[in-house]
Amino acid sequence: CSLLLFLHWRVAFWVMMGLLLAVMGSLVCMKIFGQTLNLITMFGLIIVLGLLVDDAIIVAEHVFSKVENGVEPEHAAISGTEAVTWPVVCAIATTIVAFVPLMFIEGQMGDWMGTLPVIVCIALTVSLTEALTILPAHLAHGLRPLTGKARSQADQARVKRNIVLRFASRVRAIQDRYMQQTLRRWYEVLLRKATAYRYVTIAVLTSVLIMIVGVLAGGHVPFVFIQKVDAETLVADLRMEIGAPIQKTRDAVHVIEEAAMNLPELSTVYSLVGRNVSDDGMVTSPQTHLGQLFIELCPSEGRNRSSEEILNDLRAATGDIAGAERLNFGSLQGGPGGAPIHLDISGDRLEDLTAAAAEIKARLREFEGVSDVIDDFDAGQREVQIELFESARALGLTTQSLAIQVRSAFYGFEARKIQRGREDVKIMVRYPVADRRRIYDIETMRIATPSGALVPFTEVARLKEGTGFGSIRRTDQKRAVAVTADVDTETTEPDSIMATLAASFPSLMERYPGITLSYGGQKLETKKSFGSLKYSFAVAIVLIYVILAGLFGSYIQPLIVLSVVPFGLIGAVIGHYLMGFPLTILSLIGLVALTGIVVNDSMLLVTFINRSIERGTEPVEAVIEAGKGRLRPILLTSATTVLGIAPLLLEQSFQAKFLIPMGVSVSAGLIFATVLTLLAIPALYLIVLDLKAIARRIGGWFIGPPEATSDAA
After folding, report:
1. 371-426 tens-digit pLDDT
2. How many CA atoms lie within 13 A of 134 on its CB side?
3. Is the pTM above the cut of 0.85?
4. Nearest residue to 346 via CA among 484, 502, 481, 511
5. Cα separation of 48 and 29, whole Å?
6. Which residues sit opposite 290 in a β-bridge?
């Protein structure tokens, strides 16, 4: 429909057919390069949907404008395509270059989004090939002359007899009257005002940009790594005391099951007793103290409460379960991420690590909106530890030899194996059951020395009670304990909590010298993604500048085109604010992708201004003429891109919600950048000409007029 608003129906038809061909060609190339259809690749196709018709619209619109001026369709197809070939190639190149940095994002986000730029590059390459080879042939044979003698009386009579052609003719008349003449007339009035007061125009836009930066700095549009969405699967992780009987763990899981069964939004409950599944899908080995529940809810559009509200109800309903060392609730969110708050405490003394972790957990529980504050330290079970006396070493005993004898007595020593059918049967020699039930039985053992003598156990070693370790985690060869917590982003922001918490780190490190505090989870992933994206984006801007400088043959004009890049932030921030979304890492990736999109229209506008000036047109009139000539394709390319992303913005499914911020950045940023292209680029172009004139005048004061210089010579 957007194509029919601005283009002749024949042109719109062939552009649409080119879109279908580009999509099918992209799918074939995806198969060749081993890509699959999944959420990310389909999202890439959605984003690139408007871009696929971008180059086709540029070619078709330029060819059709020549047909409107009376050129034969065959000649118009050739000359029109030749006129825009290099601008179109450069436009596609700048878009590809803008998406390439997404290939080099580090961390989980890079692994997750790595296929997106591949899909975009494939689709744009196929679209460019179609627009420069197949589309002109279709236009040459599919268009009819619209002016002059080519429009014969026979053609007019045929239109009158055919009701379909008569309707199309009326639609075309309305289109010419309102979408072409009226819109161009209004735009010309506005453009003349913007160019006449060009310095005011740029000052206003710069002021708006500064205001938007202030809005971001003030936290009115918050930033989170990955936005929490209304999940459809909740997870309860239960950890009882180490060594708890399996029946006790099963009873605790049953308490959580009963609380889940009372939820009106419940679909199914799946419970695990004795093991759990980690975030990366790995199943732990059987352990009697572990339990886990997966609670499936009905789709978000079919319930009145959010998953976060349901989680709060579950926390209140389960309360404190007897014997539970840890019980935390969460939800399966889309995309990469981690805990909103994640602190790694590393050092050499385990006592300091656990004490520091306890203080940090107590501090986190004081913040409103913080829940599931836990650490990953497993204290382990109570155990009896054997300590060898130094005097026993004179008898030839070592800790290893003592441990082997105790193990052989209580666990058994393999004397031999016998074959029984296809199986080997071990024969173990150990104390009778009655002599290996109590700790006292260890103390009454006789220990054999290397000389063959038997000495009482109490003469060579002693027993002491202690606590073992369920697991030991190390970071950079140092013992580490991680403290994690969940945050309700409706109440507070993780960054503000971390900033407040960081103020107490110096005093904490003074009390526990030797410990090191570092961020993990979403904070660490944000740092990785930001760091790599920052440098990749800078490289992309340089490459785009090189492409534009080669096209324009100028070092200044590429800066005019690139000036639209920071102003795209205005539309993106306004779009997030109006739609109620926070800025996420995907929003920033969308801004990077937006760079290549917004550069295209500006580049083509500057190209046509240059051509008009080369024909001898006065600069102000050249700007007006080029702006009016590019109004239709600029509006059309922006409309098709925004409308291509619109279904994603309206999507309510869980799978698509976390991708919406990226779509908001592209669509809202493109809407504002379109206005900027149509008004600010012409104003900036004239400002550059003004500055050049001033520079020449100043240079003339120092060098003198060329005539005077030659006479003096």
Report:
1. 878 887 776 667 888 899 988 888 889 999 999 999 999 988 888 888 888 888 88
2. 18
3. no
4. 481
5. 15
6. 239
